[in-house]
């Protein structure tokens, strides 16, 4: 089974595996403090997330959106290390008459900080850096940069997962993600959903189903909270937190920037070490690429 492109099935997934009501809203601070309070830090340690309105000013949001458009249209000096992925629906050769702008066919763009100073600056925003220092300590490194576009009508799901299942940094607890809304991110168009406290359960088996993901039957959807954010709002979240986003079948796009950071004491690990964290029944249950000659076997999910 791969990514779902049939809208009926996508809607079924949206209703069955995600919260669809604003009443399941997580805690979102009304303003961004210069420094996080002790209560905020403890909230992050206990739940695995911290959400706040207004990290970016409207002019900064506009600048980020222009930078993304320039990237997608390749209007800036290009570097092939930057990756662009189309929505599976369009990649599979389908068309949607409601969508004429090529930007609205893109699912994600990543590894752009090396050529896009406007987006690199946001990843080291002067209001963000002190919070990261409070949460993972000084001397952290940025390890990943990405824009998740979630276009209208055909925006695909990012199934429930832990980000550390994809990464090669350890200890896993030293990884933190930052997700910044550039459009209104709503329950309808696929805002982030998280399950508070799941980061404390440690690494969990991931399998290649619709994506590399936690099996649906193991996701505690009833405990999930939604994190709707206005443009410029931010979610900080542990690399071990269970999170996902439903398909976007609405007419609104939902652009977001996502950066990850590793604490100063983190180091890169081998696939063998990763398999030590993400395993099930003695086989590899993580999301990194496996060389068939490595002697590491992928775990197969038995429902
Ligand atoms: O923004 C999204 O739709 C999902 C982001 C995410 O969880 C990821 O890329 O790991």
Rg from Cα: 18 Å
H/E element order: HEHEHEHEHHEEEEEEEEEEEEHEE
Please, how many helices? 7
Terminal Cα span: 13 Å
Strand content: 15-25%
CATH topology: Jelly Rolls
Query: Could you tell me the number of beta strands?
Result: 18
Low-pLDDT ranges: none
- What structural category arises from helix and sheet content? alpha+beta
Summarize the biggest pleated sheet: 8 strands, mixed
> How would the global form be characterised?
globular
**Structural domains: how many:** 1
Folded structure, characterized:
The structure is a single chain. The protein has one domain (7-294): q2cbj1_9rhob like domain (Jelly Rolls, Sandwich). Strands 1-2-13-8-15-5-4-3 form an eight-stranded mixed sheet. With 303 residues, the protein is an alpha+beta fold. The longest helix is centred in the N-terminal third of the chain and has 15 residues, at 58-72. Helix content is 21%, strand content 22%. The protein is globular. Bound molecules: 2-oxoglutaric acid. The site of 2-oxoglutaric acid has 9 residues, from strand 14 and strand 15.
How do you describe this structure in short?
The chain has seven helices and 18 strands. With 303 residues, the chain is α+β, with helices and mostly antiparallel strands.
Q: What descriptive keywords fit this protein?
A:
binds 2-oxoglutaric acid, alpha+beta, 7 helices, 303 residues, single chain, four-stranded antiparallel β-sheet, Jelly Rolls
